[in-house]
Amino acid sequence: MRNSGHQTNGISILFLPTGLDKDVVTPNVADAFKLAFMLGDVRLAEEKEGVAGDVYVLDASVATPTHFAKFTPTLEAYPVKLKEVHVINVSPLVDKIVNFVKPFIKDKIKERIFLHSDTNDLYKYVPKEMLPTELGGSAGSLKDFHAAWVQKLDEYTDWFAEQDNIKANEALRPGKPTNYDELFGIDGSFRQLVID
Fold first, then answer.
1. Spatial separation of the C-alpha atoms in residues 112 and 91, rounded to whole Å
2. pTM value?
3. 92 dihedral zone (left: phi>0; alpha: psi -120 to 50; beta)
4. CB atoms near residue 89 (< 10 Å)
5. Cα(10)–Cα(73) distance, integer angstroms
């Protein structure tokens, strides 16, 4: 959940997911990303001055291996700059998972990922006045942030419905149609795959 009222130097702080129940059923990944992009679309529509970047604070204490198995990063094409990612309450399992994934991440992004086993270490990077009370800050509670975002998304219901109806008319695209199988070199299927 984004700290909607507090920014420092134009940087937004986003909290995902802090203080949630570990036993919550793992969401459909596509739905989770759609919600994240919906929040981002509202921000892009409302923050006319622009955002200097996003700082994500992820609470690993509520993450399970099932959550990680369903996670696929897709921020490459989104028009928001990733400033930093802080993973708090890091366990040895999370540390291993992050270290396993890091070789597949661009060096520039790797340098922006910080693991914190102690929440006090987070304060060196993110001022306490920007953090929710659940993380020892003074910016308000995550429950209040959540309620504000639910209300904001409700206000944008009609706009999202309009956006859902906007589609590209591929018949108007110049040149021959793109064959995505040829583009990515994956022609056919793997039903006949033979491994020695």
1. 19
2. 0.69
3. alpha
4. 19
5. 24
Q: What is the pLDDT of residues 40-63, one digit of tens each?
A: 888 888 876 666 678 888 887 776
- 40 vs 92: CA distance, rounded Å: 31
CATH of domain 2-184: 3.40.525.10
pLDDT by residue (tens digit) across 125-178?
988 888 889 888 888 888 888 898 899 999 999 999 998 888 888 788 888 776
The Cα–Cα gap between 65 and 86 comes to 18
Q: Is 16 left (phi over 0), alpha (psi -120 to 50) or beta?
A: beta
The SS3 call for residue 66 is helix
* 67 Cβ contact partners less than 8 Å away, ≥ 6 residues apart: 26
Note whether 9 and 52 are within 8 A (CB).
yes
The C-alpha atoms of residue 73 and residue 128 are separated, in whole angstroms, by 28
- Core vs surface per residue 165-194: b (16+ CB within 10 A) or e: eeeeeeeeeeeeeeeeeeeeeeeeeeeeee
Which CA distances in Å does 78 have to 44, 47, 74, 135?
11, 15, 8, 28
